[in-house]
Every structure is written in C-alpha cells, then in structure tokens.
Design a protein that fits this description.
The structure is a homodimer. Chain A is mainly alpha-helical. The first copy, chain A, folds into 2 domains: about 5-95, Orthogonal Bundle (Arc Repressor Mutant, subunit A); about 105-185. Helix content of chain A is about 50%, strand content about 5%. Chain A has helices at about 10-25, 30-35, 45-60, 85-95, 105-110, 120-145, 155-185; strands at about 65-70, 75-80. A two-stranded antiparallel sheet of chain A has the order 1-2. The first copy, chain A, is elongated, with a radius of gyration of 21 Å. Chain A starts with 11 loop residues before the first helix and ends in a 34-residue tail after the last helix. The model of chain A is unreliable at about 1-10 and about 195-218 (pLDDT under 50). At the A-B interface, helix 1, helix 4, helix 5, helix 6 and helix 7 of A face helix 1, helix 4, helix 5, helix 6 and helix 7 of B. The first copy, chain A, binds a DNA duplex through helix 2 and helix 3.
DNA sequence: TAACCCATGTAAACGGTTACATGATTCG
DNA sequence: CGAATCATGTAACCGTTTACATGGGTTA
C-alpha cells in the first residue's frame, strides 16, 4: 500500500485521533465532543478538520468505518482502529517527539509593552492571571475527584493522571509568571479579588469547581 | 485606507515584526537572524514568511522601506515602523491577548502510551528531560549574565527580563513534569547522568525544595 | 416556538513549512 | 577551493480556521 508523503511529517491530529479511537470507537461527532473536553486542553480540533482527517485515515486503511443508518438524521459513521492503524500507533510511540516550539503572542506583547499602552498590558496580565487560576482550579478539582491517591493508580489511569499533572504544572507555571510580572511592573497592590491562593496542591479536597461547562476526563 | 480582513484576526507575526522593528529598523535578513535568537524562543519564523509579511505590511502602510543599493548582492531593503504602524502597535497592546491553547503532541503520546511501546515512550521522556534541562541552563546563564540584579533593572530591561523569566518558568515546569513522570512510570532508577538538581532558582539561596515549579500566593 | 442537540459535510482563505533558486563576498 | 555569509525571493503544499449549509429531534 502506498504511503502519503505527509504521513512522514508532523500530522499529529491523526495520532490524536488514533489514540482516542483506540480507547473507544466513535463517530466524528463523538470525537469532536471528546476534543472539546479532556483531550481538548492538549489538542484542539474543529469538527471540519476531524471529519476530513477521519476520511483520509479510512482511505489509508488506518481506520474501518461501520455505517449505522439513522432515520431522518444522517447516518452514523462509526470509526474503529484497524490492525494497520495499531501498527502505526506503535510506530509513532517509538519515534522521538520533537519539542514543540512554544509560540506566545503574550510574550511578544510583554516584550513590546514599552511601545504601547503599558497600563493596558498590565491589565491584560491581571486578566490572564485570573484565567490561569480558574483553569488550574478546574484541573485540580478533576485530579482530586478522579485520582485522589497517587499510590492507588492503575496502569490504565497512570497515563491519564500524568497528562493531567502536565496541565496542572503548566497552569501553575503560567500563574506564577503572571504574579511575578505583576510584582515586577509594580501593580501587585491592585487587588486581584476573584481567586484564592495560587497554589492549590494535592491533598486539598475543597476545590471551587465554579463556572465550568465541561467536566470529566474520560 | 482599506483594512485587510485578516488584520482583525490573530496575525501575530505582524506584531512580532512591529515590536522588533520598533526596537531597531532592519532588513528581512536581519529579522530572520533576530528570530533565530532571543525572540525566536517565543516566536519562530522562517525568512520566507518574514519577507512575505514585510512586503504586505509595507503595502498596508505599517512600514516604510528604504532601499540601499548593494553592489553585486541584492539591494538591502531596510524597513522602519511608520506612524500608522505605531498606532497599530498601540491598538494591539490595548486589546486582550487570547490564551493560546497549548498543543502538545508529547501529551497526546503520553496519553496513548498504553497502546504503543511504553519503554520507548519512557525513553522519550528521558530524552526530553535532558532537552529541557539544557534549555533551562541556557536561559539561566543568560539571566545571570544580563540581569544579575532584579532591583537594578531599567525600564527598558524590565520587559526583556520578564520574558526571559517566562522562558525559565516554562522550562522548569516541563522539566519537573518529566521528572514526575519518570518517577510515576518507575524509571527513575535509570541514571540521568547529565544535569544537576531540577530547580535552578533566582537569588534565593534557600533550600532546593526539589521538583517544584511555582511558589507564591497573591 | 425558539433554542439546542445530533450528525454530517463543502468552500474559501489564511498561516506556516519546505524545497528550490540566484549570485557576489569573505574566511579558513 | 570550498564553505559560510549576505540578501532576496518564487512555488507548492499542508494544516487550520471560519463561514456556510442541511434537517430532524428534543427540551424549556
């Protein structure tokens, strides 16, 4: 069978889909919702993109499609990983993952703040601090709920926990950066008002939860 | 004057170029090298892309071009920010910066490791740990050299320092994540060999505290 | 009855990457 | 003499985003 040229390059949505479908077969619609939730924090994708890539993967034999006729609504096209797909998954885990270069418009703006409205940039830092605090609280609540005891993790849970910890560490780091900058630019005296102490750690069982639409991590 | 549709959208390379040119006028070639260096860790761009965007920005009146004839080699096209460009820069600093969704193939791979070669993934974690340690050491050396005293920073230096700290915190966080995962997946007994304790910290000569990224509380 | 969910798609535009091309100068 | 530097570009491709489209079922 032929290999498309781009299969050798990044093409990561494909692998994200393979992982998600290896966990559980699904339709494009299902996957879209999964990407809106747990997986979505680390890899976002729109339904248009997902449908297109699913189609290509099926063509390439990585996925098998089963069509469930729907009355009135369009047929459900349920995708499952084939043997070839599993081989590709195995191959992929064996190759080194290139370090993604971080690309931060925020950092560029900080760097350029001297040429613009400094007060506005400081306000933006404060706004983002609140965002990161909220996201962190959400992750932490998730962790406390699903993985209360690190020692008791099963083999299946461990990778999910690891990824969640990645999110937590990332948010903690961004939050700490914002705090440091607010201190540096002399704006720490303005009350932040909305979020409790920055560093929510492990055993804490309180966790606000609050304004979150999506929950759960499958 | 007309506005292109995409000026209202992200279009961030444009702003990165505005910032860089506001600091110092330059040719496309100069900018390419700048993006390979300091600025490049937070925003990478190839020369092709830079030339294209520079051309468009000049068309739109954000930049002025001065042509210095070169003998033999192509003319130097030196770009400088116009008043309109400075206005755009000001406008940009006043609008909130959308949180960039992080997109990590690495996280996806961790999540899917159960369907692939787990040992290979653990090896990959170890490899990336070393990369982050190296990058962190580089940043930290940079900081020690250029900004040895936080209290003594000038107004011009402060944003540059802030951005560098962002890089340091990011790398510390990724490094801590790798360490945590190596511990979690029971591979910490394999010697890492190359880098000293995770947490290189600022002036603080206090206790190391080991793999922890953020401190502080508002 | 209005809004949202299910479920699929097409089309166009844009941003970014890679490959290819040119040609003089300087340095080891 | 070969490699790297200076300095600019074209062309093609790919991934991603946004807008638009369809149409029945469920719920407030």
């Amino acid at each position: 069978m032929h290999l498309r040229a781009y299969e050798t390059k990044c093409m990561s949505l494909q692998h994200a889909l393979l992982v998600s479908l290896a966990e559980q077969e699904a339709t494009g619609y299902d996957l879209t919702r999964r990407f809106d939730r747990s997986l979505g924090f680390f890899w976002r994708a729109t339904h248009q993109q997902i449908y297109r890539v699913l189609g290509r993967m099926a063509e390439d034999g990585l996925l098998a499609v089963r069509i469930e006729p729907g009355e009135g609504r369009p047929d459900r096209r349920v995708y499952a990983v084939t043997d070839l797909g599993r081989e590709e998954l195995l191959r992929w885990t064996r190759e080194p993952t290139p370090s993604e270069q971080l690309r931060s418009e925020f950092a560029v703006k900080i760097r350029g703040m001297g040429f613009g409205d400094e007060d506005a940039v400081v306000a933006d830092i404060r706004r983002r601090r609140a965002e990161h605090a909220e996201q962190l609280a959400y992750f932490e609540a998730n962790r406390a709920k699903h993985y209360p005891d690190v020692e008791a993790l099963t083999d299946e849970e461990r990778p999910l926990y690891a990824v969640l910890r990645g999110g937590i560490l990332t948010e903690q780091s961004l939050l700490a950066w914002c705090d440091e900058m607010l201190d540096l630019f002399g704006a720490s005296d303005v009350p932040v008002a909305d979020t409790p102490p920055t560093d929510i750690r492990h055993e804490t069982t309180e966790a606000p939860e609050a304004s979150r639409t999506s929950r759960r991590t499958a």
